[in-house]
Structures are given as structure tokens and as C-alpha cells.
Specification:
Ribosomal Protein S5, domain 2, Alpha-Beta Plaits, 2 domains, 6-stranded mixed β-sheet, 11 helices, 13 strands, globular
């Protein structure tokens, strides 16, 4: 039930709820996000540059007449039932633990919940690097906040969503995905400092250019464990050089410790600090409308992710390398945690059709796989419908 129009998505989710429970639901929409540049910098308390998009998750929710909660994932045709007093991590993993994790975190922070019934569906491809997990977490915590009048601020909600992912899913994610999904502003990217939570909204007037996300439809099995390994490497370096977080230091300071550090760990740390610099350079390029410079920064980010941080894969590298050969493409890079997912590319609008056709054909010939194009529109954050 993946659909393309948000209105159709909302109607489908609301219709299923009404048919199943014979009552009117509270409706919430929570978007996915792109990250223009600034990858793996969020858990290092550095700079990121995300934006909410017009794809996401629609959720219908209401009070239950039974003692248990019932959750329907329409895209998966699966139903989860549980009692709020008896929460256990689901052995199936996947979407169930995002839901259970949010409920568990709300209870852990002292909020009393009654049994509720909920269904949700999305037009955001899972595993694409557009944060379907954060969209689901945010949609649920926002819905429960509305349903039970918990009086939570948006900032409190994103930290509950993040903790759910840490404790119930086992991914030690930073705060970027939840923040961008919750606080997104239409037609603006958010330059976020993850340590101070200071944010600058930057108008995304791309003029004759378009941001295109390309979903590789590949997710390699080592993605989550390797993500946590990268985070641990960064923490080791920070501890060794005497700072709380990598982003508290500079490339020159890091260089002074190079001989004392494991070479692999040093490379990871170097990437993070260089990526922070690229975020600032990208903001300047956007403000100056210097699109060739922005494209160059995207390519440089990918090179660092591939060579220094080692989180790319053959399929993603192929998409980026092929994009470089197409006229009208200014830049491209891997987006997301890595080992699959998507690329994000800056493309002249007159070249989008050629870009799409050539990339699809080349990818199919090379890997016998389809890739999917998503020209993205930047939208608002999590909201009541």
C-alpha cells in the first residue's frame, strides 16, 4: 500500500481506521527527511544540514475499548497487540520495536498511557536513507502527546523518539533524523548544531536546480552493526585526545595525535571534522547561489564517506560515479547511514529526465536491479492533520 499522493495516503489510513474501529481518529503526518550534507556528524555533536520532505507517514489513532493496544502497519499487512504494562522487545525487530520503544520511553519518563488503537501507512521507502524510522517514531510520540494531552514540547518528543531507537532497536543514532522530521520548515533546510541544538533556517531557492534522491533498493546486512562500530571509533578518538566529542576539536589538533591513534580510527575522525567544514561551506554556497561549488562539496562528501569513513558500497558508488558522467548533474553523494540506501544529487531541472533514464538503465545493466527516483520537495515537520 505504498502510495504516491499524500492526500490519498491520509484518506487510506483514515478509511482503514474508520472501517476497523467505527470511530473517528486523530490524524497526524510525520515526514521523512533528506540530509543535504553532514553525514555521521550528528552523534559527534557536529553540524548537519537536513530538511523535511513531502513524503512520510500518516497515522490514525484513538482510544481503545479493550485493555490492550492494537497497532496495524498497513504497508506490511501486520498487526501488533500489547499491553502498556507488559512491554518486551519484539523478536521480529523492524517496525514493531520503534512503536514499543516509544511507548516504553513515555512510561519510563513517568507518563501514564491508556490502551490505544492505531494504524499507519507511508509513502516513504524503507531503507532508503530518508528516515522512515524517525518519521514513525515522531508520528507516534506526537500522536500520543495529542491523544493523552501529555504537555510535551517538540524537543522533549524528539529525545523520547531517539531513546526509543537506542534502547529498543539498538541503533545508537544521533538526533538529526528526529529533529528534521519534527521541526522541518517548508522550502528551508535546517543547519543544526547537534551539541547546542542551535538551528539556522536556510532558504532553499535552488532556482533551476532540483534535488533528486535515488533509492538503490539495497541494504546490506552489516549496516546497523557497522554504524555502531563507527560511532565507537569516534568516541575512542575523542577520549584519547581529551575532548568530550570529536566536533569539539580541529583538524590541526587531531593531526598532532595521528601517530598515537589507530589508523582506521584516525581516518574516521578526520572525515567527521572535514565534513563539519563542508556543511559550513555548503551553507555559503547556497546563500551565494554557487551551485557548482555545492555540487563539488557533495562529491567530496561522498569521497570521504567511501574512502575515510568506509560506509559506502559498490551499488551506491556506481550511482555516484555514473551521475558524474551525465551532463547537468552538479554533484552527488551517498545519503544516510550507509551500506545501501540512497544517493542525493543536485541536477539541473532540464537534465532530470536524462539523469533518471540513464541512471536507471545503467544500474539495471550492472546489477540487475531497479533504482527509484524521488525529486524532493521540502516540506513542514510533524503535524496534526
Amino acid at each position: 500500500m505504498v502510495v504516491n499522493e499524500q492526500k490519498t495516503l491520509e484518506d487510506t489510513v483514515a478509511g482503514h481506521y474508520r472501517q476497523t474501529y467505527s470511530s473517528e481518529p486523530l490524524m497526524v503526518f510525520s515526514p521523512g527527511r533528506i540530509n543535504l550534507i553532514g553525514e555521521h556528524t550528528d552523534y559527534n555533536m557536529g553540524l548537519v544540514f537536513p530538511a523535511a520532505i513531502d513524503l512520510g507517514i500518516a497515522m490514525a489513532i484513538g482510544l481503545s475499548n479493550t485493555p490492550y493496544c492494537e497497532i496495524t502497519a498497513l504497508d506490511e499487512s501486520e498487526v501488533l497487540q500489547f499491553h502498556c504494562d507488559h512491554l518486551q522487545i519484539s523478536p521480529q525487530g523492524e517496525w514493531q520495536n520503534y512503536v514499543l520503544g516509544v511507548v516504553a520511553q513515555l512510561r519510563k519518563t513517568g507518563h501514564k498511557l491508556q490502551a490505544f488503537q492505531m494504524c499507519f501507512g507511508g509513502n516513504l521507502p524503507q531503507g532508503s536513507g530518508m528516515s522512515s524510522s524517525a518519521a514513525l517514531e515522531n508520528a507516534l510520540v506526537f500522536s500520543l502527546n495529542e491523544l493523552f494531552d501529555l504537555q510535551l514540547s517538540r524537543e522533549e518528543m524528539i529525545y523520547i523518539a531517539q531513546a526509543a531507537e537506542h534502547e529498543y532497536v539498538g541503533v545508537q543514532c544521533g538526533i538529526m533524523d528526529q529533529y528534521a522530521s519534527m521541526f522541518g520548515v517548508a522550502q528551508h533546510a535546517l543547519l543544526l548544531h547537534c551539541k547546542t541544538m542551535e538551528v539556522e533556517t536556510v532558504k532553499m531557492d535552488l532556482q533551476e536546480h532540483v534535488l533528486v534522491v535515488v533509492n538503490s533498493h539495497v541494504k546490506h546486512s552489516l549496516a546497523e552493526s557497522s554504524y555502531n562500530d563507527r560511532r565507537a571509533a569516534c568516541e575512542r578518538v575523542a577520549a584519547h585526545i581529551g575532548v568530550a566529542f570529536l566536533s569539539d576539536t580541529s583538524l590541526d589538533y587531531l593531526q598532532a595525535y595521528k601517530a598515537q591513534l589507530d589508523s582506521e580510527d584516525y581516518q574516521k575522525a578526520r572525515f567527521v571534522l572535514e565534513e563539519n567544514q563542508r556543511v559550513l561551506a555548503a551553507r555559503s554556497a547556497i546563500e551565494a547561489k554557487d551551485w557548482p561549488l555545492l555540487g563539488t562539496l557533495l562529491y567530496a562528501s561522498h569521497q570521504g564517506l567511501k574512502v575515510l569513513y568506509e560506509v559506502s558500497c559498490e551499488e551506491i558508488d556506481f550511482l555516484v560515479d555514473t551521475a558524474k558522467t551525465i551532463d547537468g548533474v552538479l554533484g552527488s553523494r551517498m545519503m544516510g547511514g550507509g551500506f545501501g540506501g540512497s544517493t542525493i544529487s543536485l541536477v539541473h531541472r532540464d537534465a532530470v529526465a536524462t539523469f533518471s533514464n540513464r541512471l536507471k538503465h545503467a544500474y539495471q545493466n550492472r546489477f540487475n536491479l531497479d533504482c527509484t527516483m524521488y525529486p524532493v520537495k521540502i516540506g513542514d515537520g510533524t503535524r496534526k492533520l
